[in-house]
Design brief:
The structure is a single chain. The chain is an alpha+beta fold. Helices cover 26% and strands 33% of the residues. The strands form 2 sheets. A 3-stranded mixed sheet has the order 2-1-6. β3 and β4 form a beta hairpin. The chain is elongated, with a radius of gyration of 17 Å. The two termini are 31 Å apart.
């Protein structure tokens, strides 16, 4: 379950930013996760709950915004967005010459601190 190491890294970044700002705890953190990352939101939430005790995130809430896979097809020129996690061809025309424009995100978009 690589979500544990991902959450450890997210928490390290968040605590580092907290230390820089002079605040003492994080009340909530919001992540943006793309569908093509292969990250399972439920596993990430489980890892967060397991790792947050005795940290500045001990009482924090985790919010996850899931971003669908999207792209542009070189074959038909169309733009697409799909809830599918893995795509190998354009859902509009079936051409395999696609360029992903969204779905690879793994970002901390906001933190509420006190």
């Amino acid at each position: 379950m690589h979500e544990v190491s991902i959450m450890q890294s997210v928490m390290e970044v968040a605590v580092g930013k907290l230390d820089e700002s002079g605040y003492i705890k994080i009340d909530s953190i919001t992540l943006r996760i793309g569908g093509a990352t292969g990250i399972l939101s439920d596993s990430l939430r489980f890892a967060f709950e397991a790792l947050k005790p005795d940290t500045p995130l001990a009482e924090a809430a985790l919010h996850i915004e899931e971003v669908p896979v999207g792209g542009i097809c070189a074959g038909c020129g169309g733009s697409f967005s799909t809830p599918e996690k893995f795509i190998f061809s354009c859902p509009l025309c079936g051409d395999s010459r696609i360029r992903l424009t969204q779905g690879r995100e793994l970002d901390i978009t906001s933190m509420d601190v006190s």
